[in-house]
Amino acid sequence: RRAATRTMSLTPSASASLQPAKMKKDESFLGKLGGTLVRKKRAKEVSDLHEEGKNAINAPLLPSATEIHPEDTLLEENAERIMLDPTSRENPKFKDLVKVLIDWINSELEEERIIVKDLEEDCYDGQVLQKLFEKLSGRKLNVAEVTQSEIGQKQKLQTVLEAVNNTLRPHGWTLEWSVDSIHSKNLVAIVYLLVALAMHFQAPIRLPEHVTVQVVVVKKREGILQTAVVAKELTSTTEMMLGRFAERDAFDTLLDHAPDKLNVVKTSLITFVNKHLNKLNLEVTELESQFADGVYLILLMGLLEDYFVPLYNFFLTPESFEQKVHNVAFAFELMQDGGLKKPKARPEDVVNLNLKSTLRVLYNLFTNYKNSD
After folding, report:
1. C-alpha Rg value of the chain to the nearest Å
2. Is 34 exposed, middle or buried (0-12, 13-18, 19+ CB in 10 A)?
3. Number of other CB atoms surrounding residue 52 within 10 Å
4. pTM for the full model?
5. Which of 118, 137, 294, 104 lies closest to 208 in space, CA to CA?
6. Which domains are seen in the chain, by residue range?
7. CA angle 363-210-62, nearest 5°?
């Protein structure tokens, strides 16, 4: 009985001592629960804001497949963001253009041991663009070699783009890029910039012509997101793009102002080349197309200089663009070996059926060999 009484007397005191602890535990649990609910509520508000932005952007104007990232909807007032439409990203001509530009950059920067695989990821910080511009222009830019911070990257981009813009602006290029657009990995802006550099410095590449993409433009006006789909022409024709930089000569004047006399010039040149090619039972009727693969140019040089060109030096039946460029470039070398000045035209222009380029090359031969038998 004493033991029982002792046990019973302990029960109230133990209960009394445990009561506050249980209350504290409950209060702590409720506090944590409340904090969790608040955090979840805030997270939901942010999620709802993102979702609202997405819903605003995925309006009837846009394809349902357009991929919008949350950061694309969080714009300052009067700010805008431009995104490439996913359908354009898969456009074969656009993909071909991107591949040509990547291969060109890697070829130019081979000595730097720089390998570009993705234009957006590899060009946004300014490092590749700096090296590319320095290689093309022969100028050394005063920038830090490696920058990890966002501020440092944008400062480098600012310096690089100022040099690029000062080079391109006098030649009529519309500057479709900026520090922010390049750094935000805007692929359209990056491609615009690379196309301009390639054409200005006459890169030995063939850019796909008439490449147009659809871009999604998101603007914020009075707190409301406004969207539009706009077509952007990344490349036109090779002749039009090169026309920005080529020095005008007699052929420009002839084509622009006296097209009726063009046939007279073409007839004279056809007569000249056939006088020699007929010795091999060959005949030309179309200047721009029949010299495009370089074979007739090589054979013509051999006839004019009176030597046989070994067949292993060129492609007798070229199939690819590269093989044709090789042939025309080889013909240019033979011309220089014969004492002629280096042709103003590029081999790629002749292969691309650029009439003015072909006329310049043939006229150069005509003026030097017109009295040859």
Report:
1. 34
2. exposed
3. 12
4. 0.54
5. 104
6. 84-242 (1.10.418.10), 246-370 (1.10.418.10)
7. 170
The amino acid that residue 10 corresponds to is L
H or E segment and range at residue 231: strand 224-233
For residue 341, what are its two tokens? 């000045």
Are 104 and 198 spatial neighbours (Cβ–Cβ below 8 Å)? yes
pLDDT in tens, 107-122: 899 888 889 999 999 9
What torsion do the CA atoms of 321, 119, 228, 209 make, to the nearest 10 degrees?
-10
Q: Following DSSP, what letter does each residue of 169-217 receive, concatenated?
A: GGGT------HHHHHTT-HHHHHHHHHHHHHHTT-SS-PPSS-EEEEEE
Tokens 């084509």 correspond to: 255
| Contacts of the segment 101-107: beta carbons below 8 A, 24+ positions apart | 101/191, 101/194, 101/195, 101/198, 103/205, 104/194, 104/198, 104/203, 104/205, 105/132, 105/194
Structure token pair of residue 24: 């504290």
Q: SS3 for 221?
A: strand
In the block, residue with structure tokens 């591949």: 99
pLDDT in tens, 57-110: 444 344 444 555 545 556 677 777 788 888 889 999 999 999 999 999 998 998
Q: What is the pLDDT of residues 254-280, one digit of tens each?
A: 666 666 777 888 888 999 999 999 999
